[in-house]
Amino acid sequence: MSEGTINGLQFIGGKRRRGSSQDPLTVIDPSNGRVLAEDDNASPAEVDEAVDSAKAAFTGWSRATPAERSAALWALAGELETISDELIATESAEAGKPVRLATEFDIPGSIDNVKYYAGLARNLEGKAAGNYSGEHISSIRREPLGVIGSIAPWNYPLQVAMWKVLPAIAAGNTIVLKPSELTPGTTLMLAEAAQRAGIPDGVINVVTGTGEHVGDALVGHKDVAMVSFTGSTAVGRRVAARAASDVKRVHLELGGKAPFVVFDDADLAAAARGAMAASLVNTGQDCTAATRAYVQRPLYDAFVEAVAEHMREAKLGPTSDPATDLGPLISMRHRERVQGFVERARRDGAKIVVGGAIGDGELSAGSYYQPTLITNADQKSEIVQSEVFGPVLTVLPFDDDEEGLELANDTPYGLSASAWTSDIHRAQTAADLIQAGCVWINDHVSIISEMPHGGYKLSGFGKDMSTYSFEEYTQIKHVMSSTVRGSHRAWNDVIVAPKGRQ
Ligand code: NAD
């Protein structure tokens, strides 16, 4: 019996407990189908309770000094370091992540985020202080909004939870977070660690359940001041529409379809290995993953051959084995979706150079899918235009630089992109012309707490990490104090002229 089964998958007002909707929820290890935890979805009454608890905690938390909030976050980082082995094991089991990735990327990256916001909590300042009218001193304050309703996906459960929770609470807000119903474990561990770190009950609440029931109730709750959502573009549209009726602020981090542009002067070995890593990261279930490589014709054949070679070497296996490179996809249902994309591409004339099949033998109990390299697809086809969210890379050739950059911009998404070249002018032109929230030069996928992550176009708006994210969880107040001594304000006379002066 797992911890989730014993304690439930809800954390409300400082208490871990079971959901009461009588609508069952089962968390499964996608590498072998084993049940990890069972509970019921949160009921609407529990969403209300969680929001009430966050609302009650807001007054105290928003009035805590920046130094107090910072100290609590430093303590949280310490608590998370203490349980990092359990975090790694849970993240790996629930999300189907190879333990090497969870150990070297997810968990240390998440803890680094906590330390970054612990520092930033003491640096929230207004921009202007001056006498602009001649008769007033103006100042700007950044204030928290209140209760933030956040919704996260399953691909990086702890990291995305951090991107939602940390800027919100560092700025003095309180939060109700709904993790993906597929991967709630490490988010609950985060909430419990926060409690041990001395963050008051009610500041962080977790409600677990499906988007349709629990997510929708949270987005529509009248006491939620802002909705921060990370997930697919389709659901993001629904969330934005729902939030609009109450004029709630929204922050949307949505899907991606990142291009990977290789110019003919690129370091071929670096680009080929980079394309393999960037397309297979997290089994391709990464919003910034390289999905469309465009390669200038002189390098095209050699690039395809080199990427194919690397992909054939990638080892699928049990997520707990440090030698495993690729874990399963998140679920059998998602694997069917990925497989459907590849089969339709094959039917439409694309060539499957590597993969294009599910994992067999010892892997058949899990939702494994082989690294897949596709050529000869049409730029306008579904496999090139839609987010597949699996270990699938298409490669297409281009002739001149302009064409390569046009193809890179030719999808509705704009989250991230990379350009590979040894020419600084080409690199700068690519950085100028590619419409994406992040452009890497001679690399792809790296992120860092200090720098923003967020999209253009249908990839959404709003930034995670960095000072930009911190500011998004605040509202701006202008305070204007009169410097005029005595009882006469000249502008009052403009409205109603004093007697005898018309
Ligand atoms: P999803 O959109 O299906 O679900 C995301 C979250 O929304 C889940 O918690 C889900 O339960 C909830 N949800 C579903 N329907 C809802 C509704 N009607 N109202 C409120 N909440 C609802 O996405 P997913 O499959 O969990 O994650 C994969 C997607 O997330 C991909 O599209 C990926 O690109 C995107 N993603 C984006 C970023 C980014 O930073 N831009 C990061 C990670 C993942």
UniProtKB/TrEMBL annotation:
<comment type="similarity">
    <text>Belongs to the aldehyde dehydrogenase family.</text>
</comment>
<protein>
    <submittedName>
        <fullName>Gamma-aminobutyraldehyde dehydrogenase</fullName>
    </submittedName>
</protein>
<dbReference type="InterPro" id="IPR016160">
    <property type="entry name" value="Ald_DH_CS_CYS"/>
</dbReference>
<feature type="active site">
    <location>
        <position position="253"/>
    </location>
</feature>
<dbReference type="InterPro" id="IPR015590">
    <property type="entry name" value="Aldehyde_DH_dom"/>
</dbReference>
<feature type="region of interest" description="Disordered">
    <location>
        <begin position="13"/>
        <end position="35"/>
    </location>
</feature>
<dbReference type="InterPro" id="IPR029510">
    <property type="entry name" value="Ald_DH_CS_GLU"/>
</dbReference>
<dbReference type="InterPro" id="IPR016161">
    <property type="entry name" value="Ald_DH/histidinol_DH"/>
</dbReference>
<dbReference type="InterPro" id="IPR016163">
    <property type="entry name" value="Ald_DH_C"/>
</dbReference>
<feature type="domain" description="Aldehyde dehydrogenase">
    <location>
        <begin position="22"/>
        <end position="479"/>
    </location>
</feature>
<dbReference type="Pfam" id="PF00171">
    <property type="entry name" value="Aldedh"/>
</dbReference>
<dbReference type="InterPro" id="IPR016162">
    <property type="entry name" value="Ald_DH_N"/>
</dbReference>
<keyword id="KW-0560">Oxidoreductase</keyword>
